[in-house]
Each structure stands twice: as C-alpha cells, then as structure tokens.
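Appendix B. Raw example, untouched.
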Amino acid sequence: MNKKQDDRTIILNNGEIAKATFPVVVSASRSTDIPAFYSDWFFERLRKGYSAWTNPFNGKKSYVSYEDTQFIVFWSKNPRPLLNHIDYLKEKGIGCYIQYTLNDYENEGLEQGVLRLKERIDTFKLLVAKLGMGAVVWRFDPLILTDKIDIDKLLKKIEHIGDQLQGYTEKLVFSFADILLYRKVKANLERNHINYIDWTKDQMLEFAEKLVHLNKAKGWNYILATCGESADLDGVVHNHCIDDRLMVRLGYKSKELMKFLGAEIIDTRQQSDLFAEIEPLEIPANAILLDNNRYAVINKNNKDKGQRIACGCMKSKDIGEYNTCPHLCEYCYANSSKESAIANWKCHKTNPWSETITGK
C-alpha cells in the first residue's frame, strides 16, 4: 500500500471504512491478561484482520489493523491457552515471545485468581517446548514486601521456582512494587488488610546482592534484569521487555521485521575474490548471534519515547484495555476495582467475537 501511514484505512465488519494504525509489533498486553482470558478473541480478531481499541483517557474508539504485523509480545500469568494458537502464528509467519509472570504468593493470597504454582510451571515448560529457548521469559514481578513477606522469604520463593526452570529460561526479570505511586493499589491493599512495606534503596541493594549470589551459587546463570527501575544494581541489567534484540534473534527470517527494526544480517565468512580463501569476519561486541555463521546488528534507535524514562521497551502497539483482567490480584494497577474488571469480563462473554475486548 502506497498511502501515507496516517491515511491508511480498513473495512469494518459492517462494511464501513475507518482509519486504522498498522503496527508491525503488537503488545498483548500490559493492560490485561489476553493469553489467559482473551486468547480465542484475539486470534479471531487476528484472522479478521483488525480489532478496536478504546482509549482509557478519552473513551474514543480507534482501530488496529494486523495487516503489517510481524511480531507479537504476549504478557501473561497463565499463557496456557496460547498452546492452542501458536501453530497459527507459525503458519502466518508471525513471531512471538512471552513475558511470563510466574510469582509465588499462594500462601499470602495476593493472586487468588491464578492457577496453582505447579500448573503454571508445567505450562512454562510446555511453551518452551513449543517455542524454543529464549521465547519464554520468566518474570517475578512485582516483588512485594509485607508484614508476612521479607527479603529472605522472597528469595526462597524465587529459589523454589528458579530450580525448576533451570534449562527452560535464560532470564529472570523483576521489579520492586512501588505502592505509593499507584493510589488505587494502595487503597486496594489497605482495604484488604494487606500490610505492605514500601521498598527503600538499601533494601533494593540488599535484595539484588543476595539474588546475584543465589544465581551464582545455584549455577543458574540467569540474566538478572529489572523492569522499569532506574536504580543501577551490581550484577543486574536494565530489561527491555519489548525487546528489538530478542525479536531479531527469534524473527530474523522476516525481511519486513528486520527492515522495521533497522537490523542488518551479516555472514561471518567472506570471500574477497573467486579464488581467495574464506576468512572469518570480526564480530562486533553488540552483535546478535544467529545460526549458520550469521549475526545481526541494529542500526536504529527503536526506544519507545512514550513510556516511562526507566522503561527500555521499543515502540509497539498495545491492544489491551484496563479494567478487564479477572485474575483480581490484590496489587493490580490495571484494574480500578475488582467489580469493574468482573463486569467487563462478563460483558465480553456475552459478545466474545466483538471488535473490542469488552464486547461493547
């Protein structure tokens, strides 16, 4: 299509013509758990070619076309339903990876809507078998301190999961719960008599030091990374949850995706003339290693300037909506109330193939 990006249109189910955005990279989603509750809806909309999105600030509806989509980043606490749909993505040539939040707050009742930990760990392993190493990222997020959970108890929880995921993931991403930043989260915790403790800088440093030691002592060798944290912690990197480098590694066969990301693929062997011996090229420090003696470099700044300063994510289009997640975690920032989330979930079930996730 030769039209300018802002002039592109789609034909809706009712035959009307509407302007739409045409993202190459889709986030599904920071705002709700699409894999757990809305997988069937999302893949039906993917087949239809578009979905509608309601702006949380002004209530206006806009449209998202999947015509150009080459990669999807899924976020979930229970991505098991994706197992029914991954083959379709492969058929369409659309790459993906999963940010899998695998916490353990069972005894404290902070995540009463999620499945048992053992089931979630089993799902993690099944997804790795389907997608491959690196395509399922472990998140223990957020880290919460309460009168019943201290730093050492958090580390014990991480150790329990980390032992079981060894050989299934390369990375552990975490963040420190910032309760005071979200007034509705603070109110929800207090309403449910959860005595949270806000993290201090010294506590963050202590936790990071102990986690780095645990990672080495257990021989996990996980990449330890923080999400949206400005603090520099020894032995811990700043994560890029929507990560152009990981997309290159997993989706480099898509020429459209490589063009969008500004990625150049280079063969490590070159021949100066027809009769010369093949000599290895020097690989730059920032290279993304691929297979078949190839690597890639990204020659473009893909950072999403619309996110928080400490956020390392690249540009994408998030297609979820707030107040739609029935996990009902006590610390959730994406639901203004449990009642609104349940109401929207019920509305979705009455009209599960609607253009919008809520069925409205």
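End of appendix B.
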